[in-house]
Design a protein that fits this description.
Number of strands of chain A: 0
Shape of chain A: elongated
Distance between the termini of chain A: 56 Å
Oligomer: homodimer
Largest interface: A-B, 39 and 39 residues
Largest sheet of chain A: none
DNA sequence: ATTAATTGATAAATAATATTTACCAGGATC
DNA sequence: GATCCTGGTAAATATTATTTATCAATTAAT
């Protein structure tokens, strides 16, 4: 019954899991192809069977993470009314994601943005999709006067995500705990005060 | 007359300049030791005479940049009164720095934070010094009621620098122009609204 | 002034990593 | 039963980073 390619071959799965496992503790640069192969229990060559190179694998891991994140975000927004309510939810959910998934935080905050290939990757496509969702909400908020006019939507987005990312950076770098609720509350309050009409 | 080690040997200077030149256009990962040596017109071995490895050289380049940045910031603050006035100046100066120095922006926003050695480097020491200056100003602002209470100083700092960094990220990545004055104005307005009592 | 140390630099060897290639075994296919 | 995918291996090769041995020109010391 199972379609054309529902399950990925065992070796491939082991490689992906090995990469995740290694990224939990170390940064990309210190992880070698050989490390990945040993951790996965496969041969180095197999990695190149399924991925172009180390970064390609990295982008794939990010893509998987981002897919579930985006799905969660979309579900979170269902049934909510009002731009600010939606933004509040997105802020909380984003922080919660970084707080509970160090690998996700590390990849996106520290590892991908310094390579050209990332911006051609499927993972980046998902990031852009998320970005469009945010921008739409902000513009809707400006339209119905929940958010004051005169500030371009991209500044507001930068403020929201810049603040979130900075607040979660030490989580990614030093494995410091992030208090999701408190952080979300403070950031939301600060930003909402800043953008209210 | 010249002191113990005022001038660095020509080869060393050429290496540092080569690294700066290459970082103007490409990311660290795509720059090889050989690239640096060729650009500098020296042999590869010489690089290891003066620097532990590629990252050590990167940190040195950042340190040089940060020294002049910090000096400028300190001068900027002279004669200013009031926490908000000082913060406004720091925001403008930081944006201006990123806007006019792509190498500086690239190194600090994209290249260093994913390695452990960075956090032991002299460059990072300077970053911490800057950070202390900011935190002091914010706390002083809270004390004399220019800034409202109840928000911890580190949240405010995260908001300020997260927003700035996010706003300058596309400058570092895609070499997009940053409109310093406009960006500074918008960010300042947004943040100050967010933190006023 | 002559020798010894230090300094700035090179060229070549070695080590570490990444990547490609050739090959193999076990199904599915026909 | 021959053929052809598929998932996989092992070994060769390429690329990049790093170390070592050496040298000429100063500088310092006798």
């Amino acid at each position: 019954m199972k379609g054309k390619r529902v399950v990925s071959p065992p070796g491939r799965t082991k490689i992906i899991n090995a990469m995740r496992e290694l990224l939990e503790e170390r940064n990309l640069n210190s992880i070698t192809i050989s490390d990945i192969a040993v951790t996965a229990g496969v041969t180095e060559g197999l990695i190149y069977k399924y991925f172009k190179d180390k970064r390609d694998l990295l982008h794939y891991v990010l893509k998987e993470h981002y897919e579930v994140f985006l799905l969660q975000i979309k579900r979170d927004l269902k049934g909510l009314e009002g731009a600010l309510n939606k933004l509040r939810k997105i802020i909380w959910s984003s922080i919660e994601r970084y707080a509970n998934h160090r690998v996700f935080a590390r990849i996106i905050l520290l590892e991908v943005r310094n390579s050209d290939e990332y911006f051609k990757s499927e993972a980046y496509e998902l990031v852009r999709e998320f970005n469009r969702i945010i921008i739409d909400i902000i513009e809707q908020g400006i339209e119905n006067s929940e958010i004051r006019q005169g500030l371009s939507s991209s500044y507001i987005r930068n403020a929201i995500f810049g603040t979130i990312e900075h607040s979660c950076m030490n989580r990614a770098i030093f494995n410091e705990k992030v208090l999701t609720d408190e952080t979300a509350k403070n950031i939301t309050e600060l930003i909402f005060n800043g953008i209210k009409p």
